[in-house]
Amino acid sequence: MDSMNRIKYFFWLCSGSSIRHLEECPSEGTKHAGVGATIFFTSVFAALAAFYALYTVFDSPWIAGVFGLLWGLMIFNLDRYIVSSMRKHKKQWKNIVQVLPRIALAILISVVKAKNLK
Q: Which of 6, 15, 68, 94 has a beta carbon 3.0–4.6 Å from 51's, enabling a disulfide?
């Protein structure tokens, strides 16, 4: 397997998609890799932001690193669960209601991080 396929496979895992189904339907692979990349990089940026915030509080790279990593993994897990449990509905309002937990998570992360900037 070449490096591009490994990266795509990794992002498929991050997206929570069924690898078997994606291998059977390659036209959907790029979309699901994009979803996985979004989930992965959201958690990486959350971990970096938590590291910085905790480093300014505790002045210890070890404490900041451990808890920043835990924060990033928690965000990864929550975001992956929310995204992988979404299903497309015919009625638009059902789609909007389904996205509300992810929007609430984004607002919560924003408020927590913005509080550190004051």
A: 68
Helical (H) or strand (E) element with 13: helix 3-15
pLDDT of 113: 66
Question: Which amino acid appears at position 61 of this protein?
Answer: P
| Phi, psi of 102, rounded to the nearest 5 degrees | -70, -40
Number of Cβ within a 10 Å radius of residue 33: 20
Give 63-94 pLDDT, tens digit per residue: 999 999 999 999 899 888 888 777 777 777 77
- Pick left, alpha or beta for residue 63 (phi over 0 → left; psi -120 to 50 → alpha; otherwise beta): alpha
Q: Mean pLDDT, the chain, as a whole number?
A: 84
> Do the Cβ atoms of 68 and 47 come closer than 8 Å?
yes
